[in-house]
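lol ok so funny story. i was supposed to be doing the assay writeup but got distracted and ended up predicting the structure for this chain instead. priorities right. anyway since i did it might as well share w the group, maybe its usefull for someone
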Amino acid sequence: MKSILWVVLICLIVACGSGSDKSGQTVNRDTLTERQKDSILANSKIPNARAVGRAMNAADSMSARIRASDTVARDTTEF
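and the output, tada:
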């Protein structure tokens, strides 16, 4: 009976002492941006994945139009 208690006690001590130190480890995070992920998806062979690429092109086109209209508005209001 006493030998079983010693075995259990030693196992508990080993289990408590064998924990890894997580403060020294770095966090492995995803380094891809949302645009990079969408670009990878658009070029994949998943059905209808090209729609992602078309949506990205439409968003880029709209952003370019907004920038152009902002530039025109800025040019007409400055004297």
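The radius of gyration is 29 Å. The longest helix spans residues 50-77.
back to the writeup now i swear
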